[in-house]
Amino acid sequence: MPSTVNGAPVVVGAAAPATTRSAPPRRRRMSSTRWAALAFLAPLLAYLAIFYAYPLYRNVELSLHDYTPRAFVQGNAEFLGLANYADVIASSTFGPALRNTALFTLVSIVAQYAIGLALAVFFHHHFRLSGLLRAMFLVPWLLPLIVSASTWSWMLNSENGIVNSVLEAFGIGQINWLTSPDSALWSVIVANIWLGIPFNLVILYAGLQNISGDLYEAAALDGANAWQRFWRVTFPLLRPVSAITLLLGLIYTLKVVDVIWIMTTGGPGHASLTLAVWSYREAFGTGQPDFSPAAAVGNLLIVIALAAGFVYLYLQRREERS
């Protein structure tokens, strides 16, 4: 007999109605979505493989073999392992190049950041012609580096440069800016600082636009002066932007070659020689290419840049957790 529930008959053992088979269409939709995602990723992956992964692999491979020009063409270079790295580090050029790289990089990025931040704060207070002046500060960024470096080389020329001409008008004697071991490195540092200020100005000025004006009004109501508002409000809130600006500045400055090469070619002697210029000189600047040591020096620069990137990621994650 059929059983009853609340007076309604229920047939025991009756089969449940068959469900429609929706899995295959859903599976097809998911498969098409994956293919679409791969189609969008394919150009990026190809770009990264061709222009980043392969050159990096090739650079490492060059540094582990003895590539002379003949071996580079024939492809039969002898495997040396880490001997090229040992030779580079043991070289008498490594110490001065590393010291010059550290000084050139640190002074450049600190000065570029400080001046760029000061200009960004200055232009943040809108006034007449602020847009025009801000655009004029971008000129060094828009000029080709060879033009900028050549201009600085002419300005600092010992005999007919404009800088020495101005100094002589004030009774100061001739200074060998680019040919003296005491001033060559500082001369290229000044030129590089001038070139890097616009980048810092643009990034930091954009960061200032994201700080609410209400915070400055609240600080002013609490009696904070201009310096206190900058130090207590502006600077802390710019910390994420400042970190990425300094990181990018570090990576860019580590690989500067053209400015130094055009102005001093790393001389006199090793006075303005950096690791990047040393790598370029070994590969292309002597008329007798030595690709393997050049690649080893370049890889050392990559390691330094990667270390800086990992430090940035560590500090960023620690700040997010706190």
From TrEMBL:
Asked whether the UniProt record includes Magnesium among its keywords, one would answer no
Q: State the family named in the UniProt similarity comment for this chain.
A: Belongs to the binding-protein-dependent transport system permease family.
Q: Which is a Gene Ontology cellular component entry for this protein?
A: plasma membrane
Keyword Nucleotidyltransferase included in the entry's annotation: no
From the record, give the transmembrane residue ranges: 35-54, 102-123, 135-155, 184-208, 237-263, 294-315
> Where does the ABC transmembrane type-1 domain lie?
98-312
Q: Which organism is it from?
A: Jiangella anatolica
User: What is the membrane topology listed in the Swiss-Prot or TrEMBL record?
Assistant: Multi-pass membrane protein
Name used for this protein in its record = ABC transporter permease
Q: Which InterPro entries match?
A: MetI-like, MetI-like_sf
Mind listing the GO biological process terms from this record?
transmembrane transport
Instruction: Please give the superkingdom of this protein's source.
Output: Bacteria
Q: Which UniProt keywords apply?
A: Cell membrane, Membrane, Transmembrane, Transmembrane helix, Transport
Subcellular location, in the record's words? Cell membrane
